[in-house]
Write a structure and sequence with these properties.
The chain has about 110 residues and is of the alpha+beta class. The protein has helices at about 10-20, 25-35, 40-50, 75-85; strands at about 25, 55-60, 70-75.
């Protein structure tokens, strides 16, 4: 497995979504779950697959419509993704506002 050279916030979002997925998931669902543009998510998926963090396959179900490419973390990718996500700064929505301390549990 190759080491990621650059870990952007978009990469962290994609890794978070992949870690949360119980089953292989398709790229467009990852686009929706991360609220990131497809033009950012798909190149990251390609880079993760080239580095063997992610494997992909075509959905072979009998569903109607366009075929879906399914993505899943490899075993090593899952371990590495968890470490990257744990080391990443929390999203702005989860941080307290600047100059304002975080509320204590039970206090509002």
């Amino acid at each position: 497995m190759l080491r990621l050279g650059r870990v952007t916030p978009v990469t962290v979002d994609v890794l978070r979504a992949l870690l949360a997925a119980d089953l292989p998931t398709w790229g467009l669902r990852l686009v929706g779950e991360t609220d990131r543009p497809a033009g950012s998510v798909y190149p990251i998926l390609a880079r993760l697959e080239a580095g063997r963090w992610v494997s992909s396959s075509w959905d072979e179900s009998d569903r109607r419509g366009a075929r879906r490419r399914l993505y899943a973390l490899t075993d090593d990718g899952r371990t590495s993704a968890a470490a990257v996500v744990a080391a990443a700064p929390r999203p702005a929505a989860e941080r307290p506002a600047a100059g304002r301390p975080a509320a204590e549990p039970g206090l509002a």
